[in-house]
Amino acid sequence: MFKNKAYISIGSNIPPRRKFIDEATKRLRRDSNIALIKRSSIYETCPNGSNFDIRKRFLNGVVEIETSLGPSDLMSRLLGIERSLGRTDSKRCLDRAIDLDILLYNDDIVSNGDVVIPHPRMHERDFVILPLMEVSPDTVHPVIKKRIRDIYNAREMKVFTSPQAAYNHLFSEKISGKRIGFVPTMGYLHEGHASLLRRARRENDLVVLSIFVNPTQFSAGEDYKRYPRDLKRDARVARKEGVDVIFHPSASDMYKKDNSTRVDVEGLSENLCGRYRPGHFRGVATVVAKLLNVIPADVAYFGQKDAQQAFIIKRMIRDLNMAVKIKILPTVREKDGLAMSSRNRYLSAAERREAPVGYRSLILARKMIEKGEKRSEKVIRSMKDFVHRNSNAKIQYILIVDKDTLKDVKTVKGAVLIAIAFYFGGTRLIDNMIVN
Ligand code: AMP
């Protein structure tokens, strides 16, 4: 509603403490420049400081607000509420009918005499940290955030388009002893990609991101031309995640006119998406092999979102004796369960609302299997009914396959991969789940 987000701590140690806290919350809510988003539970704590009477225990909580007020105006409103509830001297008197402090205001770092944000002692106070984590578990202290930004900004991020130049740079880094983590993508980065980059950042000295919409994995009539591309935006995400090198070749850099070599991973490529996108995995395996020849990676990171792709790459690495370790990381989802994908941006608002139906059908399948259903056919039928009942999606396939061979199983036993591909109009979405 308002563009600024702030967290306010509320405390009271004079009876009726709860009433003071509720009243202060009410007054915040009544302010037309403030929208109260959330309040934590109320915690009872011992007072800090030697002058306090131990019997005068505090009740404390944290509220999340959105506001149009700047930090100083917000502070004045809080002081106004404190005064209106009978608080007189905020400096010397240690009994507090009500105590309101700004803990955080966006990610701002403010120090202008009357206002200091983040609250300078918030990190020392359990009675602030615990309720704050309750209302906003992902909060990172702005001073730490700034430090992270400084660390990453101090690194120079290189962008290579030429395969030879990228190889020369990375090979010299490698022989100087650096461990290289590699995340291959087609760009238009989202949280799913970011999760791979973050893991790579944690585990390696150098992180390489490739952004390449690979023509050989699209067949005629697919979305190669309209696949979303935005290098500027991707570079911003990459910088934030601490990427050292972006490799962003053109199609003609990667494929010379008379190129004629392809990598086929037989067996694993035949079922699931391979059935419906002939040649797709040949294109994927070929481009990943090529990328790994340019980027001497120690570890390459893939998403479970594209499980079949990840298994095929793993097999290729083994079969071709390639010296890179493959790690497959969990699918990152939107809050409503939809697997993140660059293609989600094609969805209309109505389609977007219905799109989690794929994931929900997978959950239904898992529940059926957990309850003892072993007949794949029965599970698949229920999933199809569920999708049709709850959306206008057109199912391309729902299959239950052995996790290692990717061949259909009639009876569920051991680890199986349940996979779905479905269309909203021209937009094709996929999702999957491994069930043991
Ligand atoms: P793409 O750019 O779609 O080719 O994806 C690049 C890499 O990111 C692949 O290894 C994908 O499996 C992975 N990826 C894509 N979406 C997700 C997601 N929602 N969660 C985790 N990984 C993902």
Describe the structure.
The protein has 436 residues and is of the alpha/beta class. It folds into 3 domains: 4-139, Alpha-Beta Plaits (2-Layer Sandwich); 155-329, HUPs (Rossmann fold, 3-Layer(aba) Sandwich); 342-435, Pantoate-beta-alanine ligase, C-terminal domain (Pantoate--beta-alanine Ligase, Chain: A,domain 2, 2-Layer Sandwich). It is built from 14 helices and 16 strands. α10 (280-294) crosses α11 (307-319). It starts with a strand and ends with a strand. The structure holds adenosine monophosphate.
Write a concise keyword list for the protein shown above.
alpha/beta, Alpha-Beta Plaits, binds adenosine monophosphate, Pantoate--beta-alanine Ligase, Chain: A,domain 2, Rossmann fold, 436 residues, six-stranded parallel sheet, 14 helices, 3 domains
Q: What's the helical proportion of residues? A: 25-40%
Radius of gyration: 27 Å
Please name the CATH topology of the largest domain: Rossmann fold
Estimate the global geometry from the Cα principal axes.
globular
Going by helix content, strand content and strand pairing, the class is alpha/beta
Would you count the extended β strands for me? 16
- What is the averaged pLDDT score? 94
The ordered string of helix (H) and strand (E) elements is EHEEEHEEEHHEHEHEHEHHHEHEHHHEEE
In DSSP terms (H or I, runs of 4 or more residues), the helix count works out at 14
Strand order of the largest sheet: 8-11-10-9-12-13
Name the ligand types.
Answer: adenosine monophosphate
Q: From the 3D coordinates, which CATH architecture of the largest domain would you assign?
A: 3-Layer(aba) Sandwich
- CATH class call of the largest domain: Alpha Beta
Proportion of residues in extended strands: 15-25%
Largest sheet properties: 6 strands, parallel
CATH superfamily of the largest domain: HUPs
Count of the separate structural domains:
3
Q: Note the gap between the termini.
A: 44 Å
